[in-house]
Every structure is written in structure tokens, then in C-alpha cells.
Design a protein that fits this description.
two-stranded antiparallel sheet; mainly alpha
Length: about 475
């Protein structure tokens, strides 16, 4: 019997405070838990299968899904590419050596290895589609940000008139991604162009390298809010994230990193695990403000930020965090861009296009099938364990100074906060399809749930996450 299979309530009285439960009782609990993990994973497989089969019927009959290979925005295109050997090699290396290396490396070495590994994994997955089609051209298509760089020659004037071009039918209306996001997203690529890093290749490198740093933010957050052991256990799953299929190359990976560092800095400030907590809180607020001007829906990351404060049992960083968070909105408002006006116009544009036709009754659950593949079956099983651990963690946190939640319980609450944000996005109706890409900032925080799984089967869970991602990237041509 391994210690990882024992829960905090494995005592004779079931409270976690009595004498240890008999070994045979612990073994039986561990076996039941592992069976439940497999059932959760099987349910995830059934959900994806149902979304594929039912989606095919709806699309063939009504043509209302606007997805050629539902539930994914993709088309059937079996292929190999220069990234195939690299992707397969990365998967084998992480499965074989990731868990022991994560346990043994010095903490800073682990962070460096995780960032490098994540970057290599995302790039190799993108290169399965080839350099031109999979990397250089991705952010230069008719829907993308780089198509309007020349229209930002006068940035203040463009910001003042930004909302005039959101709705379809207006003269010079923005491409889909530009119209669908606040101008911070496009300005990122405008500024890259201004410093000499123009074009699709540099934009792709920026999104992948910066986006992969989200792994570091997640590891740091888990370490300070739960413990280092769980962070180390989560590292291989974060590196080998199935969402790499869509992170390479997508601006949403970059958005995920900005949001993740906002959470990490607040966690460091709240736990006072950094030399200058006030500076960390201000930095976290600044990044959260920028997050809200990268994507309208990422204000929902407030659920994860709130969980950080609850787990740290303090509101001390809030005033400084809020001051930092106001910087970006004030700057954009003074420059002439009104976030609320733009958002309401975006809703109008959304329903002018595919969003007004796609059936909510299908996508409200098929979105979750997309999320299952993008997060991986290990995360699904980890979510099951999170749901089991959460009630005890809540009771411990409510118990006052005499009680403290276990590290597993604290991680569970952090993960479930991200799930709440994801479900809110789903129920809003503004995320019908394409969620395998759009939800990357939320999906990132589901991956650490895999750290709650027993160590004995960790490699099989890594395989269960990596193989579907490899199949998707080799069998389908993913949209955008």
C-alpha cells in the first residue's frame, strides 16, 4: 500500500483525527477510489463519443453546427509532419522520465525543465502540420489579428474608433478574432511589429514561448497554496497537456499565461511567500486588468482569484491588487475605448454569425466533450477526486484557526474554482463551439487535479492524456 492512496480520513472513526484505520480497510478504499477514477474516465470517453456521433447527425441533417468534425472545429485530414517524430519523442520521454525527474530535480530546475518541456511539446504538435501551415501562417489568416496591423498606425485614433467596426455590416468591420476580443489582443501583435518582430512566425513564437510559461505559474501557485509535493506530481501533466494541440499556435495560449501569472502573483502575495508581497499583489492586479482587455470572457478568472484568497485565508492583498487591476481599464478608457460598449456590440456580432445559429442544446454539453479532450482523462479522474475532497476542505477552512485543510483538499478547491469559471462560460451561451481553444485559460487549472491520482498508475494516466491529443493532431486539421 502506497501513502499516496491514503486519504486524510483513513482513520478508524473516519474523521481524520482518530487512530489509523486497519490496513485492509485502507486497501479496500484505495481499490474503490481507483475504480471510481476509471469510471470517471470512461464517462469522459462516452461524453466525447456521444458528442461526435450526435454532432455528426445534426451537422449532416441541419448544417447548423458550423463545425465539419463536431464537436471540434476541425476537418478530417490524416497526415504526418516534421513535428511527428518530435511529438512522439516528447510524449515517450515525459511518460517514462517525467514523474521521477519531477520528484528529484531542484525546484528551480523543475521550473526550467517544465517550461522547456512545455514549449517543446507545443511546438512539436504545431509542426505536425508543417512550419508554414502549422506555425507561420496560423496567425495571418483572414480571421486573425495580424491582418489589421496596418490599421493601427495611429493607435489612439484606432482605439477611439474601435467599436465602430465590431458589428457586421459596418464599413471596414474587423476580422472575427479582432472583433471578438478587446483591443489588447491585437495591440500585442502591433507592438511586436513595432519592435521588429512582425509577421506570423514571430507572433507564433511569442504565443508559444509566453503561453508555455503558464505551466510555471500553475506550479508556483499549487506549491504555495497546497504543497510542493503536489506541485511536483502535477508537473508532468502540465507539460504534456493535451491542449497543446490548440495552443500551437493560438493567441489563447498567450491569454492563458497572462491570466495564470495574475493568479500566481496573487497567491505569492496572499501567502507572503515573496520578498515584496505588495509588489506581487500590484503585479497580479495589473496582469488581471490586462487579461480582461485580451478576452472579454476572462473576467471569469475572478473565481480562481477568489479561491486563492479563501485558501490563503486573507484579504490583505486585495486593495493593492485592485489598484493594479485599475491601471489598464483606466488607460484604455482615457484612450477612448469603452469596454462595456464593445462587449455589447460583440454580443450583437456573435448572434449575427454562427453563434446565432449553433444550437445551444447541443453545444452546452458538447463543449464539455471538447474540454475533456483538451484537459485529458487524467484531469477528468482528478476532478472526481477533487469533488470528493472538497467538502472536507470546506469544513476545515470554516473550522477557524484550529483546523486546516489538507494539501489535497486545498488543491481540490483551487481546481473546482476553475471548473466553476468554465461552467459559467459554458452556460452563458457565448462559448458555443471552439472551446478546446477558447477555454485554455480555464483548462490549465484543471490539469493539476491529476496530482491527486495514485502515483502507482501515473504513467498510464499520462498515456491516456497524450495519445488522444496525438491522434487528434494527426487525424484532424484543427480550425483557425
Amino acid at each position: 500500500m502506497k501513502t499516496e492512496d491514503v486519504t486524510p480520513t483513513d482513520t478508524a472513526d473516519g474523521t481524520g483525527h482518530g487512530p489509523p484505520a486497519p490496513p485492509d480497510r485502507i486497501d479496500e478504499r484505495a481499490r474503490r477510489a481507483r475504480r471510481a477514477d476509471l469510471i470517471a474516465a470512461a464517462a469522459g470517453v462516452l461524453l466525447v463519443t456521444a458528442a461526435v456521433l450526435i454532432g455528426r447527425v445534426i451537422q449532416d441533417r441541419d448544417q447548423t453546427l458550423f463545425a465539419q468534425w463536431p464537436p471540434f472545429l476541425a476537418s478530417w485530414d490524416p497526415h504526418l509532419g516534421p513535428g511527428t517524430p518530435a511529438a512522439l519523442t516528447m510524449a515517450v520521454l515525459v511518460v517514462a522520465y517525467g514523474p521521477p525527474l519531477a520528484d528529484r530535480l531542484p525546484w528551480r530546475g523543475l521550473l526550467a525543465a517544465a517550461w522547456a518541456g512545455s514549449t517543446a511539446w507545443v511546438f512539436s504538435m504545431a509542426l505536425i502540420d508543417g512550419w508554414y501551415r502549422g506555425v507561420e501562417r496560423r496567425l495571418t489568416t483572414k480571421h486573425e489579428y495580424l491582418r489589421v496591423i496596418d490599421r493601427f498606425a495611429d493607435i489612439p485614433a484606432t482605439l477611439r474608433g474601435f467599436t465602430d467596426h465590431i458589428v457586421i455590416g459596418e464599413p471596414g468591420n474587423w476580422p472575427a478574432h479582432v472583433a471578438g476580443h478587446p483591443p489588447g489582443a491585437t495591440l500585442t501583435f502591433v507592438w511586436l511589429d513595432r519592435i521588429g518582430l512582425g509577421g506570423g512566425a514571430w507572433a507564433a513564437v511569442w504565443c508559444v514561448v509566453v503561453g508555455s510559461s503558464a505551466v510555471l505559474a500553475a506550479l508556483i501557485t499549487v506549491r504555495v497554496l497546497a504543497d510542493e509535493r503536489l506541485a511536483r506530481h502535477a508537473a508532468p501533466f502540465l507539460v504534456l497537456a493535451p491542449a497543446a494541440v490548440w495552443a500551437g499556435v493560438s493567441a489563447d495560449g498567450y491569454f492563458a499565461a497572462v491570466a495564470a501569472w495574475s493568479v500566481a502573483l496573487l497567491a505569492l502575495a496572499a501567502t507572503r511567500r515573496v520578498r515584496f508581497p505588495a509588489l506581487a499583489a500590484a503585479g497580479g492586479g495589473l496582469l488581471f486588468g490586462w487579461t480582461c482587455y485580451l478576452s472579454y470572457g476572462l473576467g471569469l478568472m475572478a473565481a480562481v482569484l477568489l479561491a486563492v484568497l479563501v485558501l490563503a485565508r486573507t484579504a490583505r492583498p486585495v486593495p493593492v491588487f485592485l489598484l493594479g487591476a485599475l491601471v489598464v481599464p483606466v488607460a484604455f478608457t482615457l484612450a477612448g475605448f469603452n469596454w462595456w460598449t464593445a462587449y455589447h456590440l460583440l454580443v450583437e456580432r456573435y448572434y449575427q454569425g454562427a453563434g446565432g445559429v449553433r444550437p445551444y442544446g447541443y453545444w452546452v454539453w458538447a463543449n464539455l466533450a471538447c474540454a475533456t479532450v483538451a484537459a485529458g482523462l487524467a484531469a477528468v479522474a482528478g476532478l472526481r477526486r477533487s469533488a470528493v475532497a472538497a467538502p472536507g476542505a470546506v469544513r476545515a477552512l470554516r473550522g477557524g484557526s484550529g483546523a486546516a485543510a489538507s494539501p489535497e483538499g486545498r488543491l481540490a478547491l483551487l481546481v473546482l474554482a476553475a471548473l466553476v469559471a468554465l461552467l459559467a462560460a459554458d452556460l452563458s451561451g457565448m462559448s458555443k463551439a471552439e472551446t478546446e481553444r477558447i477555454w485554455q485559460p480555464f483548462l490549465l487549472w484543471l490539469l493539476p487535479a491529476a496530482a491527486l491520482l495514485p502515483r502507482r498508475g501515473v504513467r498510464w494516466w499520462l498515456v491516456a492524456s497524450a495519445v488522444p491529443a496525438l491522434l487528434v493532431n494527426h487525424l484532424l486539421w484543427t480550425g483557425w
